[in-house]
Amino acid sequence: MSITGLVSVVIPAYNVGPHIAEAIDSVLAQDYPQVEIIVVDDGSKDDTAEVVAARYPQATLIRKENGGAATARNAGIRAARGEFVAFLDADDIWLPGKLTAQIDYFRAHPDVAMNCTGFSQWVSDERGVFPDPSTVIPDQTAIPVDAIDQEFSGWIYHKLLLRNFVWTTTVVMRRSLIDKIGLYDEHFRLGQDYEYFLRASRETEIHRLSRAYALYRQHPGSATARGRDYNYAADVIGRARAKWGLASPNGEAISKQEIRERLHKIHFMCGYLFLKRGKAAKALDEFRSAVREKPLHLKSWAYVAVSALADLRARFGKTQTIKI
Q1: pLDDT for 118-134, tens place per residue?
Q2: pTM here?
Q3: Would you call 22 helix, strand, or coil by DSSP?
Q4: Most CB atoms closer than 10 Å: which of 40, 149, 224, 318?
């Protein structure tokens, strides 16, 4: 049984010792009165857990072996007692008024089970120093607190297939929605949030508040900045297309051409990145997938040839020379 009005804030954390305090402080600075903080240390090798334990006795600290963000968020959800569950990445921060605005919106719209907000980029200078948060927040005085982005609100499943405009750090969900859709899919090391929100968008309208209520910290150590060896976005979209098709529950839909364009672009860009990193075999798989989505795209065929040749050269280079 969840506690009425309580917001459980789930913070998965991995090697974020330099940033975790700012994230937690931004939650404690909220003016919403009913909050529990759950930090899940996902096997950090730095002092992340120690910082939390020493400085934030009011937070629930869960320590676990490294398993990825999905496993960490699931551990936090299992421990959550709130009527609402909010997510915050440990290297980002919330801005003042975020929770009050989102919970007030829920109370005014009882049929909406998930909402999110706008956000601003938070980029360091050449020395790695991040500017004062107040200097990167846009002027929002003209935007009503309860205003929503109409383009990104409503039954948005079909729109999410073309663009993931829901950012995890801004999301608050009713616990009742989580009980319907279940936990994060731990198959995904990256992209698990995208898959989760697509699942949610089959059960409820999702509304995005227009104001920016969080800062997204961009730095080399973030999960999205680290190199990856698998095309998660294409997998997520492909699974959704196969299971639910291209239409939202209210009947609004995108075309087959639009989804093919989307998947072609993802495969092509992923293939290009693999090729640039010297992973010719993986690049070849991606360019072949790009061709399947858009057979008449000559540039994709050209890169199939380039990556195939690079793959052959790589294999030949590893083969011992046989003297005849």
Answers
A1: 998 878 777 778 878 87
A2: 0.90
A3: helix
A4: 40
